[in-house]
């Protein structure tokens, strides 16, 4: 199974410890990694047990997810046993299947894993009632992402936007920048204005290659549009396509300026993503802007003294083409065993109530279009959630998560390494496109 690089990068950045046990229970653990969550009450599932596996753990995500499962237990009377999977969700669940003990419900953090599990028969199609809630509350793009070969398997419960650029408000004020940029041309001008004011414009944690794939995906989606994005993600068009070269040329407008990057390209390539956050928001900032996903807000709060909304803010990734991109990822609930408890939990996960419980706690974005934005605890999260919902069917899943690991998810190889080389020397657009195509062709065989 491929490494779950999105999850690993996020959890490492947030400083979450993936322990063998999860100390969030209101009852005693039932052995091993399993944790009871919520007491049994009255309801249709009284006396029944539902087993759940997901990546979320700790006092941040794990404790918040516990409240969702608690609500389900109180609503149905079910006893819920939750098992944290660790970073490599696919490998963990594969071992459970091979051992004859898969959970009733699992949450998968990659669309490619959902498809793989569907092909192997490890997950069951959604029951009718869950599918009805899904169709009522989710845009078609989310229904499609949870489907394979004409059947719907997953409900995307939690999502994230990778189309946000975080900035230090004081740096913009000092440079006389009144409004954040909305177009790529304005973004380049903003970078130059910051540089002219004596500030380094951008920090990039390029030692983590996935950071650069996020840049490319945002620019490419905006330049080429959703249909081309879909074709490229499946390697139905080549990486030597003119749209790919145009995206690379746009990136070179930023990456090609030594003084635009904290530490220059060499310094950026030696900085992992967690280290790039204090470069912008730490006590001794070295840059003014940080392109990164919505979860950067949590790191700003926990790792620096800056306050989101006061010292730090974000603007949507600027439009390099006709429209601004919205690229992200998500965690899909799937049914691994067809039990009454699994059916009820999947139906519950698709409801607005289930989304609201976590949304009110913060650190969460739901693709559920029926959720009132007022459920989010602050204006920053409401703006990010609105961008995801407003994107509708133009939202696109992280392309590198859709690709074979050899191309889109391997350290020191494939797209990660080629884009790192391009950051170091963005002068050869044609040569870089050719290298991407060769790597993709090898991986998609």
Automatic annotation (TrEMBL):
The keyword Transport applies. Residues 1-29 form the signal peptide. Keywords: Signal, Transport. Pfam families: SBP_bac_8. It comes from the Bacteria. The keyword Signal applies. InterPro entries: Bact_solute-bd_prot1, SBP. Coiled coil: none annotated. Belongs to the bacterial solute-binding protein 1 family. This is Carbohydrate ABC transporter substrate-binding protein, CUT1 family. It comes from Thermomonospora echinospora.
